[in-house]
Amino acid sequence: MKYSYFPGCSLEKNADAYDKSTRAIAEPLGIELVEIEDWNCCGATEYLALNQTAAYSLIARNLAQAAKNEDVTELTAPCSACYLNLRKADKYLGMKNGLADRVSQALAAGGLSYKSGTLHVRHLLDVIYQDVGLDRLSEQTIRPLYGLKVAPYYGCMIVRPAFGNGSQDPQNPTSLDRVLEALGAQVVDYPVKADCCGGHMTQISEDSGFELIRRLIKAAADAEADAIVTLCPMCQLNLDGFQSAMNRHFDTSYHVPVLYFTQVIGLAMGMTPSSLGIGQEIVSAVDALAKIGSEPPPEPPQPTRRKRGDKSLPMPTARVEA
Amino acid sequence: MSERVGVYICHCGSNIAGIVDVEEVARWAGETLEDVVVSREYKFMCSSLGQELIEEDIKEQGLTRVVVGACSPHLHEKTFRRACANAGLNPYLCQMTSLREQVSWVIEDRAAATEKAKAMISAAVERVKLHEPLEAEHVPVNPTTLVVGGGIAGIQAALELADAGYPVVMVEREPSIGGHMAQFDKTFPTLDCAACILTPKMSDVGMHPNITLLTYSEVEEVTGFVGNFHARIRKKARFVNEELCTGCGICIEKCPKNVLDEGFEVGLGFRKAIYRPFPQAIPKFPVVDTVNCTYFETGKCLACEKFCPTEAIDMEQKDEILSYDVGNVILATGYDLFDSRKLPQYGYGRLPNVFTNLEFERLCNAAGPTEGSIVLRDGVTTPKSVAIIHCVGSRDQNNNPYCSAICCMSALKFGHLVMEKTGAEVYSFYIDMRPLSKGYEEFYDRLMQEGMHFVRGRVAEVTDIARTPEEEGKLVIQAEDTLVGKQRRVPVDMVILMAGLEPRADADEVGIKFGISCGAAGWFTERHPKLDPVATMTDGIFIAGVCQGPKDIPDTVAQGAAASARVQGMISKGSVEIEPVVATIDAERCSGCRICNELCPYNAIEFLADEGVSYINTALCKGCGTCVAACPAKAISGAHFRDDQIFAEIEGLLFDALPAADDAVLA
After folding, report:
1. Which residue, among B262, B341, B376, B399, would best test binding to A if mutated, counting the most A CBs under 10 Å from its CB?
2. What is the fold, at CATH topology level, of the domain defined by B583-639?
3. Of the segments A155-164, B323-332, B617-626, which one has the largest average pLDDT value?
4. How many domains does chain A have?
5. Global pTM?
6. By CB distance 3.0 to 4.6 Å, which of A258, A285, B40, B132 could disulfide with A240?
7. pLDDT band with cut points at 50, 70 and 90 for residue B155
């Protein structure tokens, strides 16, 4: 399986570990990444609010560059913001409005063109969940993450329904949960899995930003997660990079490491932590990873017969996912 | 001999005359169209005077054909056919064409509308000249009625028919009749106990000499036609001999196997493997749940058999297939509740103290698992605050876009019961309050007086993730209060989800079985949404209660009674007229390919194996023409829709088209 690869700026700097681990696991999982030639900024978030024509032209240039390679129709981006922007650009260019015309003109001025739908823009998680599949992940798992309790954190960008989120429930996505389970990890109940990480709020309003970070860290700590596993450089930066500042702000002492899902996949595949960029995180994951055992944790005890005098009401059965 | 056609153009007040130049159309038809001997326009053709105009012309001018250009034939075709019949003309020699729905209501330009009206009249004139007289058939009506579903709608319908002296066969899928109403605690707005008003009716059904009650049974197949249906019913094995069982209940008491009751107690309580859904069940005979019974699992136990004083337990019992001839059918199959787990943001199935409305009914019910105490999932703690979330799965573009009609009122009822029994604070999160019927607004007012809190806004989420110390250990409701324009977070102990009503999961299948259809939302389609709400497009099949659409108990009972009144009308008339606009198969030309058999939406075509040809039961045929179009041998013709009639109509429509320059185009 061949994919055009759009790393984006984060993966060259603060999320270097994400890039490293993505490239490390790609080949064994049968993913061939072809980095887009001369790619540029995805437009991030700010530019879209200032000048749509310029911003979408910027994004569309990446699509046009990738589309030059006619053999590859799938495009993957590990960064949620890059993914969403590329996806939006692809969608808007197919709509009959002034924006699409202006962007096409801008591309043409640079000798480029892009037709909406030429490329299928995918987030890396979706590629691993759908194309690689849970079976292959399990097969490649030689060092299962037994005993590691993880909180799956999706963030807000890949679940948005208007841009095709792999038909996940926007309120309760589950693909990362399933991926982590396939690696042998124990997924904790994490109902804030699609809540806001704070985005750029730490730069604009520290109080708001830290509060949003606190909620996510606290929910993971309350659920006794050893680590939060995420798929977005922005989420990782906020939860990891600002965790100590948040702790100072609220006078708390949380210590929840935040890893990329590609890093834990690599660990389960038996790769060394350093080859996956583990150790580059600010909140150290050493203690958490030390909990990985060689034996599967004991099965939770089966509910025994109701004791005499037990007045509690039965819980409804969980819904079987379609 | 050429026909003598009369043309009548209706003004329909200004409905048609406001756009179409009716005088011009009438003049043109009289002067231009061949064989038209009378052409008139009149203010209201449907009035008695309008009808008399036609009748007089038939008698005095010797009309042999009549064309009326007015509203849609859906509304007044019968009127004008009757007028013709009154004057001695076969009613099928009258053709109606719609100058209102198809012309004046959809065209704004006066000249264009007038031109189209002319084309429509021309088409009708050309067609009617080829009409042939048709005679309606009359068939007798079997006085027995099949009532499917033993909820309050079916109970009401069955009792009204039985009390009027007519035999009823009632089929209920569950082991007892009573339906959802039997699960409820109180009924709004009067707060009478649901069981107190329902169980007398249930026992009336059980005891009534005119009612044959078949519970734990399902209709497998229905054949035949209005007045003469034939139903095949599967009576599932109860493993209890109903002739010997006294209903003493010792078997239930002695059964060692406890089973989670996901039926009547909606998963909140337990029952035995041999059980009766609830104490007042009708009939009183228990059933064996073969999935959970130890005997069916291991071949051992039989405690029930050992202790039964009348030797009524019969583990060898088999399903029985019963057959009944009935004249009419009333479907009262009810509803399913929306599965709240489809909305993970409300936490049902994850957060223990989130309950559904039906769970709360059982919680509140003195005969329920908590004997009527309103407690949290731990079975002990009384909530100090309760939130009620309206429109769960209803008024929701991602789930059911419609309003479930009953939830506002039951939310008010719940609010009252919670406050009365626990003194807790109650918060209702609603989109709009819709207390629409008699005494309902007053009940809403009463709850406001009693201190229930109302927050207008759809709830975003129910979460156990606390943001403040006060929220710790609580369920927090996050919602926008749209009257204030602010976000609210309300911590409570218990949440009740007002899950909406949904068509039965197998409504489609049941519809096909009885030859009726479901609308877009899945409810059974009535013949007319306002004027014929309990009949269906299939004669002799009636619908009542929520299977037709969400409604509360009073409306359900009214529909049950209405359906029964319709059936009684059919029975007392004694026979039904069968529309003669049907298809017939020319056996000589039929190759026996059977293509038409499967296509017929009314199951009217059967294959006569002996003769190797298909045959259309004219009593079942609706004249839809599907088979006529499909028959590769052109062996089927549709009366009143013959090819030559349709071609004449098309040629009439094209009256102003230029003569074909090249005949090859038509060939």
Report:
1. B341
2. Alpha-Beta Plaits (3.30.70)
3. B323-332
4. 2
5. 0.85
6. A258
7. very high
User: B562 has which bridge partners?
Assistant: none
Q: Which amino acid is at A28?
A: P
Residue B579 clears pLDDT 90, i.e. is over it: no
Quick check: B661 pLDDT over 80?
Answer: no
- The C-alpha of B381 sits at a distance from chain A's nearest C-alpha, in angstroms, of 10
Contacts of A189 in chain B (CB under 8 A): 350
Q: How far is A220 from chain B (nearest CA, A)?
A: 10
C-alpha A99/C-alpha B47 separation (Å) is 60
Binary contact (A215, B467; C-beta < 8 A):
yes
Q: How far is CA A173 from CA A170, A235, B75, B355, in A?
A: 6, 16, 52, 23
Among all chains, which residue has been given the structure tokens 């009027």?
Answer: B164
| Omega of the bond leading into B283 within 30 degrees of 0 (cis) | yes
**What are the CA-CA distances from residue B464 to residues A154, A179, B418, B428, B476 (Å)?**
19, 25, 22, 19, 6
**Is A263 in a helix, a strand, or coil?**
helix
How long a stretch of residues is chain A?
A: 322
Residue A250: what pLDDT?
96
Q: Which residue has the higher pLDDT, A318 or A266?
A: A266
Residue A21 confidence class, pLDDT cut points 50, 70, 90: very high
Note the CATH number of domain B336-502. Answer: 3.50.50.60
**ipTM score of complex:** 0.87
Based on the number of CB atoms within 10 Å of its own CB, is B318 exposed (0-12), middle (13-18) or buried (19 or more)? exposed
pLDDT at A47: 80
CA gap B279, B657 in Å, rounded: 77
Beta-carbon separation of A310 and B343 below 8 A? no
Kindly determine whether residue A313 and residue B377, on different chains, have CB atoms separated by under 8 Å: yes
CB contact under 8 A, B345 and A171: yes
Residue with tokens 């890949």: A158
pLDDT at A296 (0 to 100): 87
In whole angstroms, give the CA distance from residue B8 to residue B476: 69
Residue A150 and residue A116 share a domain: no
The H-or-E segment that residue B653 falls in is helix B643-653
Last residue of a domain, one of A101, A123, A145: A123
Query: Inter-chain contact B345–A172, Cβ cutoff 8 Å?
Result: yes
CA distance B459 to B485: 14
Tell me, yes or no, whether A164 and A50 share the same domain.
no
